[in-house]
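$ ./design --mode recover --in tokens.txt
reading tokens...
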């Protein structure tokens, strides 16, 4: 019997010789969630000129504490002219600070008759002025290679006038569901059949991890058809992911098919859930290969396996450091448990309190209870042969896309 391997060894096998995918240029409005293929340098200052942080009056600080004539009105988007000496300018949020002015006083502190304004005393230089380049200066590194383009990053690029961006090609994934007993929703269940819960769950997770799912395939419990469908999937995809068929039953053909088509790098892990997990490569006719990840058929095992293995694999293919490992945090256990020879990944909900982070474990941690994953914020990592009592510190992996 093969010795159960720790997750560290499995990740090494999974990520060995993984190379970044190529790049493509896409419009900025289609780049959400994509990963930068090149670093981007700022071409303009942000803001591009000194401007007012609020509605009020722009003036020289040395003129504060008296009535000043209002010499101009400056709305956002309108050019300013030099400030007349001994005067102030009515200005609105985002308006350009006129040359000669060095501060802005908010309108609530000013008395005005429409032609003059009584400015309070002691207005400091620079008050309520957003200086040119405060956020970004031309020539600064704006975003780095491997950064993921989420909301703020997209806004950052738009602020530079960027319309096209070079991003990594999405990893193409073929998602195979094995087993005669697994059927698609919408078909009446016959005795012994189950609806395919893994397919929509894993498709969503893969897309959140930056992949493009290019095939959804049902694989019957037949060795020859398993070989044929794996061969087709390897031709179409960078990564082939299967669910089920990697255990030791007579109808589990995926492991044998993988060994006939390429190589098996890893099988059986010392983790719970997710012990029967196959990692390997499928050889193509041109000599290249597609990565293979065979997840267990139990839905919780598939969910946990996706976070532990598919996420870092997508990160390696995309060259995205934030996807390489889940953020780890320390929490206080609000549960008791004990482990055997395998490392346990428990689904927990997190509560953030003044006392720190509290981890509440879902009562039923069985690998078939998918409801334990719906409101899970993290996976609590419990080492083998451990007894965990309430109040002890535990390590949790935060489930972030």
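writing sequence...
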């Amino acid at each position: 019997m093969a010795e159960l391997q720790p997750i560290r060894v499995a990740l090494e096998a999974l990520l060995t010789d993984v190379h970044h995918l190529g790049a493509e240029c896409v419009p900025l409005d289609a780049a959400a969630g994509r990963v930068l293929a090149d670093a981007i340098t700022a071409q303009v200052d942000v803001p591009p000129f000194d401007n007012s942080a609020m509605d009020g009056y722009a003036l020289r600080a040395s003129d504060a504490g008296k009535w000043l004539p209002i010499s101009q009105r400056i709305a956002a988007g309108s050019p300013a002219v030099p400030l007349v000496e001994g005067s102030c300018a009515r200005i609105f949020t985002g308006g350009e600070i006129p040359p000669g002015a060095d501060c802005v006083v908010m309108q609530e502190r000013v008395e005005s008759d429409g032609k003059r304004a009584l400015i309070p005393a002691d207005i400091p230089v620079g008050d309520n002025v957003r200086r040119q380049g405060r956020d970004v200066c031309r020539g600064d590194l704006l975003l780095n290679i491997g950064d993921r383009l989420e909301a703020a990053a997209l806004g950052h690029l738009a602020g530079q006038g960027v319309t096209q961006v070079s991003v990594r090609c999405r990893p193409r994934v073929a998602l195979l569901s094995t087993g005669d007993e697994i059927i698609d929703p919408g078909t009446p269940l016959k005795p012994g059949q189950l609806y395919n819960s893994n397919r929509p769950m894993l498709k969503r997770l893969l897309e959140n991890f930056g992949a493009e799912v290019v095939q959804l395939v049902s694989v019957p419990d037949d060795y020859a058809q398993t070989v044929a469908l794996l061969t087709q999937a390897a031709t179409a995809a960078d990564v082939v992911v299967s669910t089920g068929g990697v255990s030791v039953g007579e109808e589990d053909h995926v492991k044998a098919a993988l060994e006939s088509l390429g190589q098996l790098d890893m099988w059986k892990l010392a983790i719970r859930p997710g012990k029967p997990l196959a990692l390997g490569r499928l050889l193509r006719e041109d000599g290249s290969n597609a990565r293979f990840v065979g997840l267990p058929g139990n839905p919780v095992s598939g969910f946990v396996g996706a976070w532990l293995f598919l996420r870092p694999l997508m990160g390696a293919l995309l060259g995205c450091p934030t996807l390489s490992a889940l953020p780890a945090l320390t929490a206080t256990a609000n549960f008791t448990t004990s482990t055997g020879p395998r490392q346990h990944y428990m689904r927990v909900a997190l509560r953030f309190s003044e006392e720190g982070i509290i981890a509440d474990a879902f009562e039923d941690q069985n690998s078939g209870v998918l409801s334990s994953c719906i409101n899970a914020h993290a996976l609590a990592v419990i080492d083998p042969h451990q007894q965990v009592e309430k109040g002890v510190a535990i390590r949790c992996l935060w489930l972030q896309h």
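exit 0
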